[in-house]
Write a structure and sequence with these properties.
Number of domains: 2
Order of helices and strands: HHHHHH
Largest sheet: none
Number of strands: 0
Low-confidence stretches: 23-34
Radius of gyration: 18 Å
Strand content: under 5%
Length: 105
Amino acid sequence: MSKLKDLFFGSDEERSNNESEEIKLANEEVKNESGAQALVTADMLVGDLLVKHPLASQFLMECGMGCIYCPASQMETLAEACAVHGIDGEEIVDALNDYLIEHNA
């Protein structure tokens, strides 16, 4: 039974190594243009972004993304949502990070 588990899920040692690598990647700092730690990235799901940073909702609506609470937006990345609205995603990410840092979000 143990060999079957190892075949599908890897050995305990392999899983431990993978988890350590994932933690390292998660802990890497993402920087925005101003050099501050980025709170938001373009690959974040809009739904997750709004839960983590509620102040982002007002900012995004003011940028022309009035439908951020529609069901479809909850499953798309911020970059995809920006593309749908014809907005430069990188510009929004940088401005949103600056906004959230300024407001201590």
